[in-house]
Amino acid sequence: GAAMGLEYLHDKADPPVIYRDLKAANILLDTDFNAKLSDFGLAKLGPVGDKQHVSSRVMGTYGYCAPEYQRTGQLTIKSDVYSFGVVLLELITGRRVIDTTRPKAEQNLVTWAQPVFKEPSRFPELADPSLEGVFPEKALNQAVAVAAMCLQEEATVRPLISDVVTALGFLGTAPDGSISVPNYDDVPPPRQQADQTSGEDPVSAEERERAVAEAMEWGVASRAHSRNPSAANSRNPSTANSRNPSAAHSRNPSAS
């Protein structure tokens, strides 16, 4: 819902609109638990033509603002993607973005989670404790991978919100009530692109990139199916129809 609202602002509006203040408090739920974006007081028209960003006085809510926007005041649609990653991480962990009641090392949610992002085997550590360990692990891993993509320090390597929408569509509930998680065991691992200056273990980096690649593969498969259903079915008949049909509702601000 909230991601689809951002998708409308970024991809359908002309010129695009940067929401600039995405946070949990600005996402409202109607009686059917459909998410609605509220409070557009800080929204700003995005860059047009050859411009890559718009300059603005830094505004927003601490903890949700993208790091490059905080440093430079340069605003892009990828700034909203970062903020969405923070909200998604809050949902996964059951924690607030800033919680001064916790030990100092855990007060900033993103800072606390960043080391875990580098080790896919530790992804279950991020699950909301109230779940008491009862959750589909692969769905959790994919959700964490999407959040990690959105929270990349470098804005240019964050996904577009449209890719996030299609990826998250596969985390919904299937028509029979089961969790819909496609099987991508045949997806080849991505090319190794570990940052050698970061000291990140190459094996952990490859595992993490594979998880990210799987999440993005959801979006690719979804687009292929929506553009040419017959071709998508012929490529992968076992998973072509696994996406929750209810996730493909109308893309407009009132439905987001």
Describe this structure as you would to a colleague.
Helices cover 38% and strands 5% of the residues. With 256 residues, it is mainly alpha-helical. It has a single domain, classed as Transferase(Phosphotransferase), domain 1. The protein has a two-stranded antiparallel sheet with strand order 1-4. Helix 1 runs antiparallel to helix 6, helix 3 runs antiparallel to helix 5 (137-150) and helix 6 (161-168) packs across helix 7 (202-227). The longest helix is centred in the last third of the chain and has 26 residues, at 202-227. The radius of gyration is 18 Å and the shape is globular. The protein starts with a helix and ends in a 21-residue tail after the last helix. It is a lipid-anchor. Its main location: membrane. Keywords: ATP-binding, Cell membrane, Kinase, Lipoprotein, Membrane, Nucleotide-binding, Serine/threonine-protein kinase, Transferase.
Main attributes of the structure:
single chain; 256 residues; mainly alpha; Transferase(Phosphotransferase), domain 1; two-stranded antiparallel ribbon; 8 helices; 5% strand; globular; disordered C terminus
